[in-house]
Amino acid sequence: MSVVPTIPAALATAIPSLLAALDEEMDDDFSGPAKLLMFEADDESVTFGIKELAAGQHPLDELMGFVAPDEWAAFGTICHGWATQELGRRPSRAADRIRVRSVHVVVRDGSEIGGFRLSGAQLILQDTVVGMVPDALRRGLGLATPAPEVPVAELSAADWLDAVADDPRSPTPKPYACWDDVRWEVIAGQRIVKGLSPTIATWMDEGMFARFMTATYPRTSDHLAAVRRVVEPRVYKTLQAGLRRWGLRV
Prior knowledge:
Layout: H1 9-26, E1 35-41, E2 46-52, H2 60-63, E3 74-83, E4 98-107, E5 112-118, E6 124-126, H3 132-140, H4 153-166, H5 179-187, H6 198-203, H7 206-214, H8 220-228, H9 233-245
Antiparallel strand pairs: 1-2, 1-3, 3-4, 4-5, 5-6
């Protein structure tokens, strides 16, 4: 027996039409607060609801740990922000910054529709998007998120480099085998992560957890460069060789 829920065909048609209508209504006004979108559907109709968040409130404030009611067939967001082509720079501070509206809806059967609109342009719909907000929508419907893009060795490297910066005699640790090993440490209270409770870590899956954790430590190459300034050359060479054995490019 299939465990994939049956989603009325009308919903697949209704979602793009509703997103286009909402985008047209907002037009080039990117000042509005984020919105949560809820869809219920049967063979005859689609019911659509909107929850407008407080001004400046991030959708993750509402989405982290949230479990959607069973009757919701789809769940989505509309967010406003900034976009830039400058890598490594905060979009809102970049010289080429431009306003952007992003939309994303996840259906309980695992299908998705999302897109974005740059100021002065048209709404562009696209395939699956990777990110914390889409991840939270997926988890809200009990769906899996995309696999981690970053190897867990990077977290092991961050831990090791922090330890060596405090004490150059710190031994080479055994790297984690997978991100779920780290997640279970958080769930068990063996690892404390700012902004992440054991309950939320349980609600996440491996992919979402990895993306959350990746934002909590610097890139390995940058981290190693910083540690190099405070340790002896032989210690640096030991670190570099160990990280390369873990498959990291440093």
